[in-house]
Amino acid sequence: MNLALFDLDHTLLQIDSDHAWGVHTTRIGWTDPEAFARRNDEFYAHYKAGTLDIHDYVRFATDAVRERGPQAAAAAHADFMREMVLPALLPVARALVEQHRARGDTLLLVTATNEFVTRPIAQALGIDHLIAVELERAPLPDGSGDWITGAIRGVPSAREGKVTRMQAWLAERGLDWDRVHCTFYSDSINDLPLLEKVQVPVATNPDDRLRAIAQARGWRILDLFEKLQ
């Protein structure tokens, strides 16, 4: 089986969807502009540096959603997709996905961003398999269903966790690494563990540290958005 694995933020998407969702919640009045922006930017800096505590970040990032409930959250996310995500989902990125689809590859979006933010983005790309940070849920007080608690369920798909989650995905299908051929596209040094695991690592719009590693190891470097700068 040939697998095409894609990171999302700054790989297929020209923005960071997690950070952008935070900006969107401020725009619609769900969060205090100054306090939220300051903490959001701090977390983003830690992510870029590879020092992010993902449990702390997910609690912070999902707080406004958790408080407002499923219906308000769904409506806000639809606006977020229309106003911020779809304009940043450029034809060059869609074409890369379609190249692999045309070859008959199985497509997976493998992201450290949570499932609430990313599932509609995967759907917009036509990617059926999503490995994202899964959110713990608990019953709503009115008995109408369940909703997110702010905690992470299971292993977060960040750094080494992407390898763990991919291994679980393979095992669920009776597969292992020796029975698949994987290509993985990522921009981030955070994804080095999975890039080192696959047969074809592709440093895509890479940060400076990942670019240096890719050059030293002879990995393919794809500057997908280079002509758009």
From TrEMBL:
UniProt signal peptide: none
CDD domains found in the cross-reference section: HAD_PGPPase (cd02612)
Coiled coil (UniProt feature): none
UniProt organism field: Pseudorhodoferax aquiterrae
Lineage of origin: Bacteria, Pseudomonadati, Pseudomonadota, Betaproteobacteria, Burkholderiales
Name of the protein in its database record: Haloacid dehalogenase
Keyword entries, A-Z: Hydrolase, Magnesium, Metal-binding
